[in-house]
Amino acid sequence: MEYIWFPLVILSAVTFGIAGFILKFGTYRIYSVPYILLGLYISGALGFFLYGIGSNQLEFSAALLIAGSIVGIGSTAGNILFMKALRVGPISLTSPVVNMNIILIVIMSVYVYGESPGYSELFGVALIILCVSILPVDPNEKISISDRKWYGLVLFAVVLFFIRNGGLKITEELGMNNTMVLFYGYFLGVIWSWVLTRRAGRTTLLHMKPNARRYGLICGLIAGIFSFAGMQLYALALSGGPASIVSPLFASNSLITGILAIAYLKERLSLIQFIAVVGILSGVVLLRI
User: Rounded to two decimals, what is the model's pTM?
Assistant: First the structure.
């Protein structure tokens, strides 16, 4: 695993980026978000469970349950707060700030776990973090914060996404079974999203297309397959590679989501976004060298 972590993390970014695009497609088609999340976590949890059986890693313990619950809270609550932040603030500012969780992971990896990337690797990491942050920027969007709740939402979202991605680094260092950690995390997501579907009243579906719940569930089930693959590959990459490099590379999954959105949803690429794409690819090349 030590020698193949780089292709693993690239593949994890691609598969997780596909999952992100499918979720974006679901919201674009105005499907029910709670049902999309329910489908995502159902197929994702099933994927980790079946992988655990196939790789003889199926394991149940209180420690795994606790760790998985913490990672699951980071994943589910982080996504919910991120979506709420988008409702009260511009994506051109919200997304870059939330992506700062990558920097926290790099700092933890260097100062807590003693990783020591070289100068070219540090430059590549910095380039990827910068370009991933500016990729969602829309130069035509008015950047202003009118609701102070935005600051609290993005701050807690940063912490929660750090708990999700950085938490897997911590559990890896503790010698825990990350496949089962992710299984418990996604299983918690099933429970949480199921509660959301029960709380969603019929009024929330008035402006949605017919069968919004059914198609939302199907969309989520498909996305969950790619989400499982992406997170499992990310966990495998962490077992062989430095998190200070693996985590920024994994964050480039937004590039895949963006490319697919341009190809299939006819979104346009601005000049600054084109520069960000070139920058991400250049950072990946630098890390490979």
Answer: 0.87
